[in-house]
């Protein structure tokens, strides 16, 4: 099967598994906002941020190495998996020893024991599911996405909606869901056959750690960039504003859902095609279609922002949630840039230049922190949104220059600029709506469709010809 059809097939499989699961998880926002006040919603978000911050540290980001070296035919899968388990065991042990330090953070002090379980179980699930991907169990990986989210939804309904356990119910739900997911994938894929301390390869272990260690600060920096906003808002404005901002970020995650589905398939294809002669042309074609697809998705999300907010964000618990839709449009464009950065990060993965990923992420994180400190006191939540957008844009500029030195491929900067300008115009129609805002929104959508249809049509024709 040729590379275009392989990419399309894997994308379709991931889409079947991911869209249903991620959509269900997305709908949980309604459950959370219906049962948690904005300030408590912010505490939940902070706990998630802490977990996402700790997971790459505890796991040494070794799950990324599982994909890179597990898919590479030059390396023994048993050695890759056994090395990863040893790294995770060492990381979990060190985490338990140092966990009392978490008590210093007052906002999460009461939830530290739950946070320990959350992080370790999530690391286990990532290891189990990513090795399934490395063994090309794509359908199992996709099915697990549905299973994990369905159990998460059921547990949340029981513990939050029925038993009214609030944040504790949320943490317990995540742990139970991740544990069932990890064990189920491990059992069905029979991972146990690939693990033994005898399979540990010290030379390969060093290679994997050299690859994964720069990804730890990279992951942390992206978390800082993505979540520092609400911490600044929490302390510079108030907890309610931070909770509303957190709720507003859920709608842009629709775009991230589309990107993640494709990226899972693309990462596998990029590694498989690393040594092919037509690699540059392949990247050019795929990136043009990817950019067009996401720009159109962003345009439609912005156009229907008010409708999506009304459906997914409950205001009866806290009327402050009613302002969330005003913060969404620019966040959608910021997430669009983040998705482009994610695509470009695959080049660092394929080229094993993870240090470059770190430096570009560092630039974005530092800029985000500085702009948050400067803009939030003067512009409140809108200042945080501007800081997020600016940091992702700077990261994109750095990466689009740097990655094309590693793998040359064509990019239309004019198309990028025009798309960004039209999306900015549509954002203005929501943030400061004129009387003719509906007409303006329709005009923006028509411009995006007309300007981005050609790359998608060309890719479709190429796929059908092959």
Task: Give a brief outline of the structure.
By secondary structure, the chain is mostly helical.
Describe the structure.
- The structure is a single chain.
- The chain has helices at 3-35, 38-59, 62-70, 77-98, 112-134, 138-162, 166-189, 202-212, 215-236, 239-248, 253-272, 279-303, 305-312, 324-351, 354-379, 381-406, 413-431, 437-465.
- It is mainly α and 466 residues long.
- It folds into 2 domains: 1-16 and 217-466, no CATH class; 62-212, no CATH class.
- Helix 4 (77-98) packs across helix 8 (202-212).
Reconstruct the topology from this structure.
Blueprint: H1 3-35, H2 38-59, H3 62-70, H4 77-98, H5 112-134, H6 138-162, H7 166-189, H8 202-212, H9 215-236, H10 239-248, H11 253-272, H12 279-303, H13 305-312, H14 324-351, H15 354-379, H16 381-406, H17 413-431, H18 437-465
Helix pairs in contact: 1-6, 1-11, 2-5, 2-9, 2-10, 3-4, 3-5, 3-8, 4-5, 4-8, 5-6, 5-7, 6-7, 9-10, 9-15, 9-16, 10-14, 11-12, 11-14, 12-14, 12-17, 12-18, 13-14, 14-15, 14-16, 14-17, 15-16, 17-18
